[in-house]
Amino acid sequence: MSLHQTNLTTLQLRAIDAAHHMHPFTDTKGLNAEGARVIVKALGVHLWDSEGNKIIDGMSGLWNVNIGYGREEIIEAVAQQMRELPFYNTFFKTTHLPAIELSRLLAEVTPPQFQRVFFTGSGSESNDTIIRMVRHYWAAQDRPGKSTIIARKNGYHGSTMGGASLGGMKPMHAQGGLPIPGIVHIAQPYWYGEGGDQSPEEFGLWAARELERKIDELGADTIAAFMAEPLQGAGGVIIPPSTYWPEIQRICRERDILLVSDEVICGFGRTGEWFGCEYFGYEPDIMAIAKGISSGYLPIGGVMVNEKVAQVIADAGDFNHGYTYSGHPVAAAAAIANIKILRDEKIVERVKTDIGPYMQKQWLALGEHPMVGEARMVGLVGALELTPNKQARASWPVETGTVGLITRDYSFQNGLVMRATRDTMIIAPPLVISHEEVDELIGKARKTLDQAWAEVKLRGYV
Ligand SMILES: *Cc1c(COP(=O)(O)O)cnc(C)c1O
Fold first, then answer.
1. At what angle do helices 329-344 and 97-109 cross, to 10 degrees?
2. pLDDT value for 6
3. 56: pLDDT strictly greater than 60
4. Which of 125, 226, 228, 349 is the most exposed place for a label (fewest CB within 10 A)?
5. 197: burial class by Cβ within 10 Å (0-12, 13-18, 19+)?
6. Is the torsion defined by CA of 148, 149, 155, 160 positive or negative?
7. How far apart are CA 364 and CA 375, in angstroms?
8. Could you tell me if 126 and 302 are in contact, meaning their C-beta atoms sit under 8 angstroms apart?
9. Which of 293, 306, 130 is nearest to 226 (CA)?
């Protein structure tokens, strides 16, 4: 009998979970003492837990449920594909209809330089693929020395050995012997936290030129690629100053370095453009995609490759790389149905011209709250920097993350999922959120800030 057919209480479900389930990115002891929240269903932008609480999902699951929950078109497409062909591979001179259709659809919705895709099962697998691909690209042109990849501190590129090495998260590097060799990290364009007295524009140029200094220090003939997120998601929704990306593109072009955009969060409409590179105005050679490609209904990812790179890879013979589930037919069917909804219902355009500006106006107004040092938002992804002193952009006189967690807990109690990264609150709701739901979300966020502010004053943190 499955748990669906039982009448176990929440406490019993938590006990089973605590006994057998190891959670990702989790302090197991702490969680098991507290008990996990059991999510039982979802529709549109709302979740329900096993206690019957209705929660607005301000994070789109894990930044991925772009079209919201419960879309019958995807469910139908998946069921039909399951019956017709639940699995076949694409390794040995075979292909199938969903892989064919999805590759063409991706060529249509991505920037024009991208006509080809290599399928993976996730964002991490996409970035691991990119490590091998860019090194192979240079080696195939008799330049095997061009192998180092430059990425950024506090970037996030996944959790596999390659992905976590490309990422610049210290707590991740501290476990498992990372980063792997051949990956180096430069400064992030985090003006609020690290810009000091410089203007955002000056600081953006400085941060971009860190790439130039690193390439020149190591020698361009040792560097394969630069990889970055258009805006950093997991790192705290860090939106680079306008001067940053044009300068990065200039540096990569002048020094013959491949430019790789990790679009796992920004892709498929999050910024109000289809891809983050279009929002920030640069043209990558390679893009990692996942998350919003299927709105999370099934796991799938991919690597978009421009013609320059694709030609070299093709001319070099076998590319000895692939995953059993590269182009999985059922996951591909989910992605096709999802992308068609995004396209046919003009959901990305709606983020740019309607719901994005509507939410940004209210979100940025939260910046006037005494506890908020900066409110920022692009498309439907934003952050609030929590501070005891707005003018000084000061940090809290307690361990980093304490106030973020206090605020996150109030938010959950109020029926809103906001995420805390350090002492930064993050929001990234489904792109289909309505005006009324934005009002509801903002009302809950404001109430949460008031409660958290009262508590930090009571605790003497201000
Ligand atoms: C989530 C994420 C990844 C990793 O994707 P997974 O599907 O979790 O492997 C990679 N890059 C970015 C920018 C992400 O946000």
1. 30
2. 73
3. yes
4. 349
5. exposed
6. negative
7. 5
8. yes
9. 130
- pLDDT of the residue at 4: 72
Nearest CA to ligand 1 atom 6: 123
Domain range annotation of the chain: 37-70+354-458, 72-344
CATH number, domain 37-70+354-458:
3.90.1150.10
CATH-assigned architecture of domain 72-344:
3-Layer(aba) Sandwich (3.40)
Q: Is the pLDDT of residue 329 over 90?
A: yes
Annotate 269-308 with b (16+ C-beta within 10 A) or e (fewer). bbbbbbbbbbbbebebbbbbbbbbbbbbbbbbbbbbbbee
Tens-place pLDDT, residues 346-384:
999 999 999 999 999 999 999 999 999 999 999 999 999
The confidence score (pLDDT) of residue 5 equals: 62
What residues are paired with 287 via a beta bridge? 261, 304
Mutate to test the pocket of ligand 1, among 64, 65, 119, 122 (most ligand atoms within 8 A of CB): 122
Q: Name the amino acid, one letter, at 262.
A: D
Indicate whether 2 pLDDT > 80. Answer: no
Q: How far is the CA of 162 from the centre of ligand 1 (A)?
A: 12
The token pair at 405 is 């967690």
Residues with CB under 6 A from ligand 1: 122-124, 127, 156-158, 229, 233-234, 262, 264-265, 290-291
> Token pair for residue 43?
């529709």
| The pLDDT of residue 439 | 98
Atom of ligand 1 nearest to the CA of 62: 1
